[in-house]
Structure of ATP-binding cassette, subfamily B:
Amino acid sequence: MAETLKAKSPHLKRFRYTQDIPVDKPFNWQQLVRLLKYVKPYAKTALPIAIIAMLVSTAVRLIVPVIIGNYVVDQVLPTGDTNLLLSFAVGILALYLLSYVGNAVRIKYVNILGQNVIYDLRHHLFSHVQRLSNRFFDNRSAGSIIVRIMNDINSLQELFTNGIINLLMDSIMLISIVIILLVVSPKLALAIMVVIPIMFYISTKLRKNIRRSWQQVRIQQSRVNSHLNESIQGVRITQSFSQEDNNTEYFHGVNDDTFQSWRIATKKSAMFRPFVEMSNAIGSVILIAYGSYLIIYDPQVTLGNFVTFTFFIGMFWEPISRLGQMYNQLLMAMSASERIFEFLDEKPNVKEKDDAIEMDDIQGHIEFDKVQFSYDEDRIALHEISLEMKPGETVALVGHTGSGKSTIANLINRFYDPTQGSVKIDGTDLRDVKLDGLRQNISVVLQDTFIFSGTIMENIRFGRPDASDEEVIDAAKVVGADDFIQRLADGYETEVEERGNILSAGERQLLSFARALLADPKIIILDEATASIDTETEVKIQDALKRLLKGRTSIIIAHRLSTIRDSDNIIVLENGRILEQGNHNELMNHQGEYYGLVKSQFQMLDQL
Ligand SMILES: Nc1ncnc2c1ncn2[C@@H]1O[C@H](COP(=O)(O)OP(=O)(O)OP(=O)(O)O)[C@@H](O)[C@H]1O
């Protein structure tokens, strides 16, 4: 319906969200086997207990009708022995109690099993995704990744909690009932079972239809989620461009779609229960009509047989209906697991070799040797770049937007590998070193600082988790963050929400300086890190910056050229190529691109 809504209201065309496509794949055994591997750690604990408990309660449910029909009705009742009848009653009660205990134990352990498997799977997926390379995240929205880690794994929950054991239980129950009925009275059994294929066919069709409706609900819900996510994240922009009405109109449309799809799905689902009851009723009618006929005319069929059948007929449709449901559940689980395994099979583009070298104590000597790099095949971001950054040197990267400055920083951090050539630190190719060790030696401060939910203290300590409170405070003092932190209501213990919205951009920047300083890296990258700090504060923190950079190889990316004039080397980039390099004076004398950039910034200032 959102499509018709857009057709009617062309101004809503801008709302486009990737659609989940309903998957109707055939059953995939290999995938199921792969999923079941997650049950293996519990194969000696929760799983056998749940199976034994299930077998006990199923056996009781199967035995009781036979005892009542064959013994109580056919043999004990005619004798009129009340004592014996009482003993049977007590015995049956004991059996039901046993079945109750069995069920309680089964439910408990099946839940333990299911929750543990889901926990393990989610843990595995999250730790895997966290280690994937930047390229993986370049191609996907955060929302779509979250949906897989949460929703897709949740949809496997039912399979692991009830599904597997129910499948076993229902299969045992159904096969046993069929055998018992055939043994007790083959004629009556066959008469009742005549309807099974028809019922099974209708039930499967009906279930398929119901499943599609619920898939539709999920698709609509995911669209509501995407719109909601975008609206909340972008609320300020929406308000500033007065787009609230359009947003609300679109939301109203998708909300209505969800409501309608939900209404259809519940209506269809509601048809299923009466269908099972109807199957039950047909079975009972056949039993009463044909059963009575047999009791009268066939000496082999007794009243006890009739009673046994009455019990079983009630228990007969239940597993059939559940097995149909189970099949649908398995198909849904298959489509969810397909999406989960797609992520799990994703290999990091940046791979660590088995014999990777540990980078403990580095000097910070960086070399680019004829480095070529592209994010996507048809666009080269860096062309044969060769450069050197000596230990302790401050190197500035300047150039127009998109010239490749951040790309150079990304390669030093080994977020990507060069397409050709090599990046070396202290003479070792980064493809040969351990990633953790490498990144512990490098701190990156970006313009858009990420603040995590937690206290200010914890946010700074992110740089070095084992730092003491005093060390955190010292780092904040050095970069000039202590003043504003002290002014906050709870000082260092002030809670900041995700993204640190209660702080100004400049304050967030100072926090990230403190975080970087605390990490005490040998290499530091400031990517537009001072862009959010006003000029006055920047002058004030020049000293702090100097202290932050002292003794480290520093790469500064800045559009504001005043920030970088003291750098040992300034590299000017254009379209992924080095145009010129040298210190400020050399480049000014050269009167090339850098000279032009400086002049244009001064002209801008003059115009003020
Ligand atoms: N993740 C990415 N996927 C595809 N292309 C990218 C990606 N990141 C950057 N690019 C492209 O690579 C080129 C270099 O980008 P880079 O971010 O290095 O530029 P920059 O000089 O840092 O620009 P700015 O000053 O705007 O930050 C640009 O053409 C950009 O469009």
Observations:
- The mean pLDDT is 84.
- The chain has 21 helices and twelve strands.
- The radius of gyration is 35 Å.
